[in-house]
Amino acid sequence: MLDIFVKGGPVMYALLACSIVSVAVIIERFWYLWRQRQPADELFEEVRETLAEGKVLEALQLAQQSDHPVANMLAEAIAHYDEGQEAIKESVERVGQEQVALLERGLPALDTIVTIAPLLGLLGTVTGIIKAFNVLGALQGVDDPFALSVGIAEALITTATGLTIAIPTLVFHRFLSSMVDGIVAQMNEKAEEILAMLAEAKGGK
To answer: What is the tens place of the pLDDT at every residue in 75-107?
Structure first.
């Protein structure tokens, strides 16, 4: 493996960096999003019952015990409990946008790697072909097949490596994006329920 890496030339170091970043982001995002995708229905009902009993502070503490996006939106709404419905809605939307940004963190990096890894592979192909032609020009023929094969090997290895990095990264990027979309859909659904729940709780006072 090390021999193949060396034969790939200097472009392989950039591709190695891309692969390390890709694997690190994929593992971190999958772990983070897997925890966030769990439904917050149980917490939601606990907070609803607590608010119905008029225990606003206790409901806030319940919401703050979780780092789920819906729980953060819920906590922000309860923190503005005594304000008007429009102010509560704006605070929930603001926190929702912040939570979406946290969910999508790292995905632009994967998108960038999907784009640049094949380009780096192409760059390695060009430099490898240039080396091969330089050998041909210097030898005025193919008297030394090994010297010629060095440039060809660099061209093929970098191309294959770039695609090997880009293809799985693209697959995981799409998969992680679908997880984010699912969580955001849950957040949008719960945002309306949060506003209705607070209006109901305040109306019952």
So the answer is: 888 888 888 888 888 888 999 999 999 999 999
- Residue 33's Cβ-count burial label (10 Å; 0-12, 13-18, 19+) is buried
Report pLDDT digits (tens) over 112-146: 999 999 999 999 888 888 877 776 665 555 555 55
CA-to-CA separations, 99 to 42, 104, 131, 170, 177, in angstroms, rounded = 20, 9, 50, 23, 14
Dist. CA 147–CA 114, nearest whole Å:
32
Contacts (Cβ under 8 Å, ≥6 apart) of 28: 106
Q: In the chain, what is the straight-line distance between the N-terminal and C-terminal CA atoms, in Å?
A: 70
Domain boundaries, the chain: 2-203
Is residue 136 within 8 Å of 152, Cβ to Cβ? no
